[in-house]
Amino acid sequence: MKLPQKRKKFLILTLVFTSAFLSILMFYEPSDYLSEADYNKALAPRVLYWGSQGQDVKNVQWQLVKWKYLVGKVDGIYGPETYRAVRRFQAKNGLKVDGIVGAETAAALGITLSEAAPASAQGLNRQSDEYLLARCIHGEARGEPYVGKVAVAAVILNRVRSPQFPNTIAGVIYQPLAFTAVADGQINLTPNKDAINAARDALNGWDPTYGALYYWNPATATSKWIWTRKVTLKIGKHWFGV
Amino acid sequence: MERRRWWIAPSILALALILSIAWGYREYQTRKQLQTTLENHYQRIFFDVKKHVENVQTNISKAMAANSSERNILLLSEIMNEAYFAQDKLAQMPIPQSDIANTQKFLNQAADYSYYLIQTHLEGVPLTKEQRGQLASLRDNSAKFNEELAKLQSDLADKNFTIGSMSNRQTARIEEGNENVFQTTLVNIDKNMADVPRLIYDGPFADEMINRKAVGLTGEKVSREEAERKVREFFGGNRVKRITAFEEGENIENVRIPSYTFSVQLDNASEDRATYIAVSRQGGHIVWMRNPRAINNEKLSIDQAQEKARRFLEEKGFDNMEVNYHQKYNGGILFNFALTEENVTIYPDLVKVKVALDNGEIIGFDATPYYTSHHERDIPKPKLSLQEARAKLRDDFEVNSERLAIIPKGKKEVLCYEFKGTHMNNEFIIYVNAENGREEDVLQLVIDENGTLTF
Prior knowledge:
heterodimer, A: mainly alpha, Muramoyl-pentapeptide Carboxypeptidase, domain 1, Arc Repressor Mutant, subunit A, 2 domains, 3-stranded antiparallel beta sheet, 47% helix, B: 455 residues, alpha+beta, Nuclear Transport Factor 2, Chain: A, 4 domains, 10 helices, 13 strands, 43% helix
């Protein structure tokens, strides 16, 4: 069948462009979670997020109420309403919409995130531990029941205390080949409320695994070695062991 | 027309091809650059590990040759540092943890053991024959380790091997000879480390500390049915709608407090939020409980919540518990209760209670520390008077409160005077040994409206 001249030209052109675009798409790697904004967020001295409490949260809420982003109480607790209000504020002001008040959002709100402690105690808090742990929980155990999330955090903390592993939370989490969520970058997702709560419960001493150092999902575990561990308990989809 | 435009399609295609090749080349360059950066990092770590292990080895030899305890303390603190450095860097190598677990343990314990020896030196106790023997074995093992690393280094020196290629081990060809040298050497070192004789000492990484058994559990073994009955009893009334046991592995008895773990559906809870609870196999004690329900409006004051927690503990048979710290988070407030006996606060026997700030319900309970350490104690009479102990503090340390307390020190417990106070606007707790006046511990407190954190 002979196509009309115009049709043929059109077809060729489309083909050329699609192949050009396809070749670009083939090589394109999404790198948005490694963007600068995210790094700044992780390194910022103090960030407020879902679950934060205190005077700083009150200041944020005050501004949001004043500018009518938030209808509700100024209670100093970063709850769902504050979260939504912050997102609305960020969207309106061209900031990254993540519901987290970091240095940039705070500056746009016209407040500084205060540090009330004396100079020598400045920065002494558990927030960075909490946040890192929560990110790891979120990356590793998003679909797990609450107890399964705390269990994953407890394993990380048990490793910190074990001589066979690194001696800091970051050391354990970022140990090469230790967690798949770290290797594939899922750890850089923003943790949800459940993950943050679970991190706090684990840091406050709750260990539903009774001291486990390993966990694995029998459906996806690729290492044969992991089955040589002493199996103790199944929580959610994960087996735990020492 | 057809004649004149025949070149359009091929030239656009050619252009697209050139563009994508250029783009691909740039990507390739970036990738190579990143790979080189990573490889350089790994190489640096590898050389550092070697150097640190070497320093451990020589410093132990020096410490054994040196006679004065001053020199020994300096050398031991160097050994501690170098061993921790080596361990920290080794853990950053792209090697499966199982291949270096024993090596890491060896380095951590070497550091921990040095710290322990520093303490005994400072207390004026000379090294025993056993301790010198243990030091000698540490030296020999780090020497062996060092030798293997040196061999590995010269093996790899003239080969085109990159450490970075090991991080995608699963996909890469493992049969490659070079890689085998690296991996097998480390695995061999690790195997040797597994046979290193156990270090006998008192410190957080000591084997005895890790394998410590719980001493606070009383009573006979209970069955699962009995444990379920205890759970219903714990919540009271007919609050338990449904109770499901967790699936257990064959080694469940190998943990510190072997327990039955249950997921419980309470009458006032939504279907997707279970409450979790553990009952010890020995004695059927409730070890921990946690109800992770959402809490929206906080109505209770801290005092009201504390009263609820106190009454709850009395009800469950924990007498003489005294509240120490609290921490407010997630709409609840967690209280730390410690046992008091004869006016002495016993910190190891700790029970945590979490109260919901909306209706005062107990949503968390953890007696793991209590059951791990509780036993009948003979509390000694303090040899120092309060005034004598207080004289050991700095003059500019302003004391706000003082009392006697027992704090854990490795495996042991020590009776101390506890001084809470401020120094240069910071809050501290200082523990002074009630027997010999040594400053046993200093804790910095950070207090905000949510509670107290200790550092």
